[in-house]
Design brief:
By secondary structure, this protein is mainly alpha-helical. Helices cover about 70% and strands about 5% of the residues. It is globular, with a radius of gyration of 18 Å. The termini are far apart.
Length: about 240
């Protein structure tokens, strides 16, 4: 994940103008729109207009349409004839099998071509830990969601198996916005505390160079997180 998704619209247009290839321009637009969907900038049900987005990014509608088609293939958008392109809704029960697969893929992170823990990776996870402590001191929905996304991409660097990383990324983005959707009905401070403890435990494993331990911790927390989501969804 690049930092492109965090920049303002004017900066996105500038990034696209400076892109060296059509493939890079596609990646920029794809990541920006995916990020907006998963941060609920575009809430479920939002209609995305090709003309408005093309004008914002300073591109023609043809390459933008390809980006929207890929986001639809990812399950984040739905094109309906006579209506347009809509952001899809998210439901815990419908995502159960996705969560189950994500749990297994997390474990594989520690088994398939695990990365060698070097100074760069240790520094990256130490930065994640610092950010988690800042979030714990000042809980906020948007900061929680942002750290959730950024920590996922940090965790992805613990494996060098590219197919595993690609599948994991697609499934992550199918599920990650459910937290923002449901946190208003949950206890934000409690969820932040649980997430920060997960980051702390994983960072400790990374500091020791134990990728498998980090992967198993991630798997366990994902399982517990899904159980909490279902519990809140079903009510007392």
């Amino acid at each position: 994940m690049t930092e492109i998704a965090n920049v303002a619209s004017a900066d996105v247009a500038l990034q696209l103008d400076r892109a060296s290839s059509a493939q890079e321009r596609f990646r920029i637009m794809y990541e920006v729109l995916r990020d907006r969907i998963c941060m609920l900038v575009y809430a479920p049900g939002t209609q995305l207009g090709e003309e408005a987005l093309a004008a914002e990014f300073g591109v023609s509608r043809s390459p933008l349409r390809k980006v929207l088609q890929n986001l639809e293939a990812d399950g984040l958008l739905l094109s309906q004839q006579g209506i347009g392109t809509l952001v899809t809704d998210i439901d815990v029960d419908e995502l159960e099998q996705v969560y189950q697969l994500r749990m297994e893929l997390n474990e594989l992170t520690g088994r398939l071509a695990p990365a060698s823990i070097d100074a760069r990776l240790r520094a990256l996870f130490e930065e994640m830990h610092k950010r988690s402590e800042a979030l714990r001191g000042e809980p906020a929905r948007e900061s929680f969601a942002r750290l959730n996304i950024d920590f996922f991409h940090a965790f992805q660097q613990l494996t060098e198996n590219q197919p595993l990383k690609e599948v994991s990324e697609r499934l992550f983005y199918q599920t990650c916005r459910i937290w923002l959707k449901m946190i208003p009905s949950m206890t934000l401070e409690n969820e932040v505390d649980i997430f920060c403890r997960e980051i702390e435990e994983i960072c400790s494993a990374v500091a020791l160079g134990d990728v498998l331990a980090a992967a198993m911790i991630r798997k366990a927390h994902l399982s517990m997180g899904f159980t909490r989501l279902r519990s809140h969804r079903q009510g007392p």
